[in-house]
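User: I'm putting together a teaching handout on how multi-component assemblies are represented. Below are the sequence lines for each component of a complex, exactly as they appear in our records. Could you produce the 3D structure of the whole assembly as structure tokens, so the students can see both representations side by side? Please keep the chain order the same as the input.
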Amino acid sequence: MERRAAHARTPVGRSMEPTERDRDRVLPGARAGSVLLGLSMLAACEGRQSVLAPAGADARVLGDLFMVMLVGAVVLWLSVNGLFFYVTRINPAALSKRFANGLIVGGGLLLPSVVLAGLLGYGLSIMPDQRAPGDGLTLRVRGEQWWWRVEYWPEGADAPIVSANEIRLPVGQRADILLDSARVIHSFWIPALGGKMDMFPGRETRLSLHPEKPGRYRGQCAEFCGTSHALMAFEAVAMPPEAFDAWLRQQEAPAAAPATAQGQRGARIFAREGCGACHTVRGTKARGLVGPDLTHVGSRLSLGAGTLGTTLADYETWIAHTGTVKPEVEMPAYDHLDPADRADLAHYLKALE
Amino acid sequence: MAEHQPAPDEERREFREERESLWRITLAPATWAVHFVICYAAAAVVCAKAPDSIGTLRLGIGALTLLALGLIGWLGWRAWVQWDVRTTGDYRNPLGEAEDRHQFLGHAAVLLSVISALGVLYVALPALFIRSCG
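Assistant: Of course. Below is the structure of the complete assembly, with chains in the same order as your input.
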């Protein structure tokens, strides 16, 4: 901008020359930039949180819908602009009235009516399958600020298996997922597995997912829900059915007693600091329901609802700096613990597998 | 033209007819609007109060759609006759004469009937494809 302003002050005859040179110099750079941008955008098609890398039946159908719309849009764009180019540059003579009327009726009335009816029918025809009933397993997921309360109800179960901040599903089966929320509207979305569904306080919504490829994917709250909305994520794992059943049995069991001296010290600190008022560790006196169930927190693939990893250092970071890691989270920061106590507590929690 | 003797009240009759056809061009979009409101309200009430009756609701929407399309078709046909494009070959009716105004109102009503019929069809399509309330 500044350079152009400088040119504007130079005499008219001279101002052309540097501008031409500028253009020669700028264009290759711009071209390389757009190529780079294009490549980096292509890279976004990969990954474990991409609608363009589907791993489930529902995401595949939605991916097809996207491709149909994209290809259709490109064809329409090329046709309209091609026609425009033809009548303005190649053959700018006046069109016959008959042809022009045909163009208006055919291209302006018939074509959009038929294309829109086709797309509407296609879109509507895939909707019922997205909400098809499940094969037996039901999950209940409640949105909290800013984490996920998860219950697994295998077919015929009369009590749930409680977990948090992680969704595991068996491959090759359709699972029902019933959603609601504690206080504000959230939205449950695992892009690699299917569409998103809003979660409302006091109202149950339903989604069903049919994973096809085993793997680790990522889910994310897709409706702004407060300060740490962006940090409300979760790991989604699609597992072979036998592995899933084994995992679920392990999740059902109460917590193992700490096996090491350090773990035992950590358990005492957990009790002493009153962690059990908010957290449940099944098999101990900790029965709080305010925060996530920690019975098997050590088996999870992330901490703080997809915010941190799972090393001992991550546990310590979470315990001592909750509000820094996740602004406005309800859990207070336990930064008054001395480093040894903090390490013991982290050790105890990580061993809860 | 010279042998045409206007009846004393012809002008008044013509004016009345124009006034009526001015109303008539709104009837097709109004049919679409009524169809839309009934379909959405009925679906909302049935799914909230009696989700098991969704089959009856879908049949009802189907019948209402046929009725609306029939009505719009009839209005469209009357407008087509009024437009009279086949006899006159005049698409645009650019002159400000009574006859041109008359035919232009028919022309506008034909186009509105077409878009209304499409609107009614698109509103009804979900009832064809979706078999449950949720």
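A couple of points students might notice: The CA atoms of residues 50 and 151 of chain A lie 25 Å apart. The beta strands of chain A are 138-144, 147-153, 161-164, 166-170, 175-181, 186-188, 197-199, 205-209, 215-220, 233-239.
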